[in-house]
Automatic annotation (TrEMBL), chain A:
InterPro entries: 4Fe4S_Fe-S-bd, 4Fe4S_Fe_S_CS, DsrO-like, ET_IronSulfur_Cluster-Binding, TAT_signal. One of its GO terms (molecular function) is 4 iron, 4 sulfur cluster binding. Coiled coil: none annotated. Residues 1-18 have a biased composition (Polar residues). NCBIfam families: DsrO (NF045797). This is 4Fe-4S dicluster domain-containing protein. Residues 64-95, 153-182 form the 4Fe-4S ferredoxin-type domain. Keywords: 4Fe-4S, Iron, Iron-sulfur, Metal-binding.
UniProtKB/TrEMBL annotation, chain B:
It comes from Allochromatium humboldtianum. Its main location: membrane. GO terms for cellular component: plasma membrane. InterPro entries: Electron_transfer_protein, NrfD-like. Keywords: Cell membrane, Membrane, Transmembrane, Transmembrane helix. It is a multi-pass membrane protein. This is Polysulfide reductase NrfD. Belongs to the NrfD family. The chain crosses the membrane at residues 16-37, 57-79, 91-109, 129-149, 161-187, 193-218, 238-256, 276-296, 308-330, 367-388. It is found in: Cell membrane. PANTHER family: PROTEIN NRFD. The lineage of its organism: Bacteria, Pseudomonadati, Pseudomonadota, Gammaproteobacteria, Chromatiales.
């Protein structure tokens, strides 16, 4: 349609000004109007569709969290990491620079760690991600307030406010955050990413906002038959996570910092 | 004792313009480096998700703390009423503003999203020391410019002392704030220490004075203006004292860490097995940057020689960059204690597997960006002294005031 309009416009330029064709003028007007409608309508439509389930503000009546039972976390399994990469478009990252350098520059939201107790030699496996602290150091240090905590306990980065200073990465005791070192391509609509910003696990916040249960890592772990990760509302005493937390001993990583993390670990 | 006369820096135009051209070229190269890193993304730098602040921050933090240190000379003259330092006050203020500008520019040019600087100016989170620093830095510039006015304008005379006190308090806050950027971080062992705030103040004394002395001696030498032995003795003794204070804080910082069992591994790594960081600590920071210049400055013969004093100042600056490299990069390279009492055997995110330090090697664009910040500072200084009367015509013994001022003595010199 646009091509037609352009072509018609160029022919009308050649027509002598004295012979104005009212019909042609009307046609151009309609064409222009339709083009504009075609451009704007999808935005309006999308907006109205997306706004519906998210019309209510997030409240602090819930606090989302995870419980990770390290006894169930299997050696050599990376299902949670792969699922997170797929869910958030991290598998679309294109390596830049040498392989060894890229290992330290690519964005990682969740990773598997194998550790050994120095005294007893006991080996533990666990996935580590943003711990969604109640008192997050990353939020304290962010100069612009881009690093923030939602009312429902999710700690995340506002990608419009982030200036890429990386102070939050300096402050995070869990090394949970990644800086986007390279230009991004082919990102997912639900998870916009941008070069020069910081990002980290947001407990699949797009799923929360659409009222879905669970997170990508939890689903993947369950699918593998391990069920090592439980997701839920820490404030609801009847939720699966709260019940499990009452049953088994659990602790927070770097408990000494008293950050009251939303992610808890059993068997560490 | 004569009247102190201030004059513009009148070196031959061809020499002046070639100096400006050289500095402008360095700034141009830095601008290209900035464009390259911003266009490609930070993957072209040596920085990564473990060492998130690199060479640009080494330059920026050095310039910022040296800026506040350079202002000491003005404070000693105005606030502590040592008249011998008064003729140096204007250059001290100019250098302070210039270095702060250079340092801030480097910091801003290294942001992931520098085009969003306006966001940082319009959105503040006051629990962040970074947000406070934005006010501390801009306030410092405004106060020092007012300070310069009070030093140079007859009408400013009555305000000189109160502005001087404000500038002194502000600069202490600024440097403490800069140290606290690191000192309040509980996440990293090497940073979780409030002593970093006052330690940065101590370091700033030495670095600021070393830069000031080099600029002063270069400026005077180029134009054949004299600096008398009395002035040199004061400056050189002051520098030696400041190096001593900085060493004292360094010693206390490490002794405290060594005393705590939880920091044994950090100290063992940094002092003995940290590779480049151990080398830079012992050789750069302690030997070359502290002990060697102190030895020169207190040596009965060498301390009388101008070239050796210049050498001592240069060594202090080399030591300053080494110290910044160790404090900023070394502290990040040492793996975080995610699981105290455990060893990480495998990790998908380089979490210090088997205690390995995170890799970082500066790349050329990073270094060029930092050098550009130094060039900006020197360019501002060079233009300032050329167009305005910042430098006294002479600091010969018969011009400078007696070393001490008695309480009832009248001010010895009026601005020219």
């Amino acid at each position: 349609m646009n091509e037609n309009a352009t072509r018609i416009a160029s022919t009308s330029d050649e027509t002598p000004a004295s012979t104005v064709d009212a019909g042609r003028r009307g046609f151009i007007g309609t064409a222009a109007g339709l083009s504009a409608a075609a451009l704007v309508a999808p935005g309006v439509f999308l907006h109205s569709v997306a706004a519906a389930p998210r019309s209510e503000p997030v409240t602090d009546s819930v606090r989302w969290g995870l419980l990770i039972d390290t006894a169930k976390c299997a050696d050599g399994c990376s299902a949670c990491v792969d699922a997170c990469d797929r869910e958030n478009g991290l598998d679309l990252q294109e390596p830049h620079g040498s392989e060894s350098k890229w290992e330290h520059q690519k964005a990682v939201w969740i990773r598997k760690i194998k550790l050994q107790d120095n005294q007893t030699g006991r080996i533990t496996q666990l996935p580590l991600m943003c711990q969604h602290c109640e008192h997050p150091p990353c939020v304290d240090v962010c100069p612009t307030g881009a690093s923030f905590k939602r009312a429902d306990g999710i700690v995340m980065v506002d990608r419009h406010l982030c200036i890429g200073c990386r102070y939050c990465m300096m402050a995070c005791p869990y090394k949970a955050r990644s800086f986007i070192h390279q230009p991004t391509t082919g990102q997912l609509t639900a998870v916009p990413r941008g070069k020069g910003c910081v990002e980290s696990c947001n407990l699949c916040v797009h799923r929360r906002d659409h009222g879905e249960e669970s997170t990508a890592c939890v689903d993947a772990c369950a699918q593998e038959g391990h069920g090592a990760i439980v997701f839920g509302d820490l404030k609801d005493p009847d939720s699966a996570i709260s019940q499990r937390l009452r049953e088994i001993p659990s602790r927070q990583i770097r408990e000494d910092l008293v950050l009251n993390t939303g992610v808890r670990y059993a068997g560490v | 004792m004569k009247r102190v006369v201030y004059r513009e820096w009148r070196i031959p135009p061809e020499r002046y313009w070639s100096l400006l051209g050289f500095l402008a070229a360095l700034i141009g190269i830095a601008a290209l480096s900035f464009g390259y890193m911003e266009h490609e993304g930070h993957w072209v730098s040596g920085m990564n998700n473990s060492v998130v602040w690199g060479m640009p921050h080494v330059f920026a933090v050095f310039l910022i703390i040296a800026a506040s240190g350079a202002l000491n000379i003005a404070s000693i003259g105005t606030v502590f009423k040592k008249p011998i330092y008064k003729p140096l006050g204007r250059l001290s203020g100019l250098l302070a503003v210039a270095m702060l500008m250079g340092g801030l520019l480097v910091l801003v040019m290294d942001l992931g999203r520098p085009e969003r600087l306006i966001v940082a100016m319009t959105n503040y989170n006051f629990s962040s020391i970074f947000a406070w620093n934005i006010f501390l830095y801009t306030g410092f510039m405004a106060i020092v410019i007012a300070y310069l006015w009070s030093m140079a304008d007859r009408q400013g005379g009555p305000f000189n002392y109160p502005i001087g006190i404000l500038a002194l308090v502000w600069r202490l806050a600024l440097t403490t704030g800069t140290g606290s950027i690191f000192g309040f971080l509980v996440a990293r062992q090497a940073y979780d220490a409030a002593i970093l705030g006052p330690m940065f103040v101590a370091l700033s004394f030495a670095y600021g004075l070393a830069v000031f002395m080099l600029v002063l001696m270069f400026g005077f030498e180029e134009e054949g203006r004299p600096i008398g032995p009395r002035m040199m003795r004061r400056l050189r003794n002051l520098l030696a004292l400041f190096i001593g204070i900085a060493l004292y804080f360094t010693l206390i910082y490490h002794l405290t860490n060594l005393y705590m069992a939880k920091n044994d591994s950090l100290e063992h790594w940094l002092l003995l097995s940290g590779g480049i960081y151990t080398f830079l600590f012992w050789v750069g920071w302690i030997l070359v940057g502290s002990l060697a210049p102190m030895w020169i400055l207190y040596h009965p013969v060498l301390s009388q020689k101008r070239e050796w004093i210049i050498g001592a100042c240069a060594l202090v600056i080399v030591g300053g960059f080494s110290a910044m490299y160790v404090i900023i990069i070394g502290s990040q390279a040492f793996p975080m204690a995610l699981f105290p009492g455990h060893t990480i055997l495998e990790s998908g995110f380089a979490d210090g597997v088997n205690g390995a330090a995170a890799p970082y090697w500066p790349t050329i664009p990073e270094i060029l960006l930092g050098v550009g910040g130094v060039a900006v500072a020197l360019l501002i200084t060079a233009v300032g002294v050329r167009v305005l009367q910042f430098m006294p015509e002479s600091l010969a013994d018969d011009v400078v005031a007696p070393d001490e001022e008695t309480l009832d003595a009248a001010p010895f010199a009026k601005p020219a």
